[in-house]
């Protein structure tokens, strides 16, 4: 696994997995939820992540 990865669930929705180091940093920062949106077209992709 990389430090942070985006994967897709059985329904095709993206979700994020991360290393324990990143998870620890998020916990210290008070982040408990990550929301992700990914869009692709041809050879291009863009992703937005909101940390709450």
Explain what you see.
- The chain is an alpha+beta fold and 52 residues long.
- It has one domain (4-51).
- It contains 1 helix and 4 strands.
- The chain has one helix at residues 20-29; strands at residues 4-8, 14-18, 34-41, 44-51.
- Strands 1-2 form a two-stranded antiparallel sheet. A two-stranded antiparallel sheet has the order 3-4.
- It starts with a strand and ends with a strand.
Termini separation comes to: 23 Å
How many beta-strand runs? 4
Portion of residues within helices: 10-25%
What is the averaged pLDDT score?
92
Q: Major beta sheet, specifics?
A: 2 strands, antiparallel
> What's the overall geometry?
elongated
- The quaternary organization reads as single chain
Q: Helices and strands: which structural class?
A: alpha+beta
- How many whole angstroms does the radius of gyration measure? 12 Å
Number of helices, where a helix is a run of at least 4 consecutive DSSP H or I residues: 1
Element-level helix/strand string: EEHEE
How much β-strand is present in the residues? Answer: over 45%
Poorly predicted sequence stretches spanning 5 or more consecutive residues: none
In the sheet with the most strands, the strands line up as: 1-2
As for the number of domains, it is 1
Topology:
Layout: E1 4-8, E2 14-18, H1 20-29, E3 34-41, E4 44-51
Antiparallel strand pairs: 1-2, 3-4
Short summary:
The protein is an alpha+beta fold.
Search tags:
single chain; 52 residues; alpha+beta; two-stranded antiparallel sheet; 4 strands; 19% helix; 50% strand
């Amino acid at each position: 696994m990389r430090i942070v990865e985006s994967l897709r669930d059985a329904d095709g929705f993206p979700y994020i997995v991360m290393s324990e180091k990143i998870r620890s940093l998020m916990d210290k920062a008070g982040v408990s939820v990550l929301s992700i949106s990914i869009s692709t077209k041809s050879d291009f992709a863009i992703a937005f992540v909101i940390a709450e």
